[in-house]
Amino acid sequence: MFKGNKIRVGTINIFNSAWYTIKEKLSVYPFEYNYNIDRKNLLYKHFFYNKLDIICLQEVDSFMINDLKKKFFDHDFILHTPEHVNTKSPKSNNCCIAYKKCFKLIGEKQFDTETSVIKNLIKYSSESGCEIQDAFLRELSKRKSIANMVILELSKQTYLGICNCHIHWNPLYPDIKLYHAYLIIRDFYEFIQNTVQDIPFIPLLLIGDFNSTPHIDHKKEDEIIQASGVYELITTGRISKNHAHHPARLRKSEAFYSYPELKIPPFKSVFKEINGKEPEFTNKTPSFERMHRLYFLQRTYTYINGNNSKKLKGYQNVTK
Question: CB of 148 within 8 A of CB of 191?
Fold first, then answer.
């Protein structure tokens, strides 16, 4: 709650390759943003006419950022962009967070896949000298996921931590998605702990394009429905090495049993908390239907005698 009102948060992946032709793919800048005024106006309508307080964007092209900053500023928003904007290509993938000017930015961090892999997992490769583990770590570093993290002061002594992320897309690599989600959330908690040690309570919002569904797609009717690795990790806080999306099971190699069990403080799904169930889809076109956009929320920990005591305390009243 903020000044007695709910904080309205929205998320959207603004890239849309459906507008492309081969000729347009070869152009210097993406066609749909340069020339499709109707599409831009539709995006702005979603941004500014839904009475949102915070807007999380994924796949923001680097050349769009200046225009978006001005547009958001004119509508009383600040557009927060990563400290190091991804400009390697005209279709660069950046996660940005727009928030009302009345909110104050307290801290920020950008997730870096390669740095996080080296920090958290490289020791398992160096200790074992296993080629399959080395290959997995190279894949983790190569197949990028993006996350932009901020802490906002909504009012005096009222804070909100946000992690806006875009998880790797390829459905052939669910274990990569799983480990990227794990590393992002670890970094998110570390960022919170290092930034707000004097704040006794802060709700956390994990939001974005996870390129994941709540359940694994099954083709056989008699198969047991199992939560996807990403969804189960986030909502239960742990993933067994026997899970279908853990590399030990997926890649059929005992080498991965040397990895630690994946554990995080769990989040609650906002969709499920509010509606009683997850939606059938959040992404739908005539040829494509998937649930990719997810909202997760957690009330986080208090500090006791300088030690971090993580406790899930329930659902904070922040809605999309």
Answer: no
User: Residue 50 is encoded by which pair of tokens?
Assistant: 């839904």
d(CA 124, CA 116): 14
Burial class of residue 307 (count of CB atoms within 10 Å of its CB; 0-12, 13-18, 19+): exposed
pLDDT for 171-180, tens place per residue? 889 999 999 9
Q: How far apart are CA 221 and CA 306, in angstroms?
A: 52
- Given a contact cutoff of 8 angstroms between Cβ atoms, the answer to whether 167 and 234 are in contact is no
- The continuous run of DSSP H or E covering 37 comes out as helix 37-48
Tokens for 148?
A: 């932009």
pTM of the model: 0.82
CB-based contact 239:178 (threshold 8 Å): yes
Question: Where exactly are the structural domains of the chain?
Answer: 7-319
Architecture of the CATH domain 7-319: 4-Layer Sandwich (3.60)
Q: What's the CA gap between 138 and 94, in Å, rounded?
A: 22
* Tokens 């059938």 found at: 280
- Structural tokens at position 169: 């897309």
Half-sphere exposure of 146 (CA within 13 A, CB side): 24
